[in-house]
Specification:
Blueprint lengths: L2 H15 L5 H5 L5 H11 L17 H4 L4 H24 L5
Amino acid sequence: MSDGATMIAYERHRQIVECGWDAEHDDDHEFQIIPVVAAHLCVFGTDAKVVDPDERGCWGLCKKHSHDRIRQLQIAGALIAAEIDRLRRLERKGGAA
């Protein structure tokens, strides 16, 4: 596994174990908020913008980690993994992804 993928997997594990952001927690986040936050982290400090009509922002993570671009992307990757898992659980339950 590449360094980036390993860092993302480590961050996702940390989110689950240390923060308690497990499947049940993630399933409470509807309306695509998890990938919106990930997108905000991905484009922070670039010329790109996230169109977010509800102005949900990035949960303060962009500014908290503004000094560390790699950390922002590591968190974004872990959030994307969480969203993939959430959508797959929803599909298994017969819901729309």
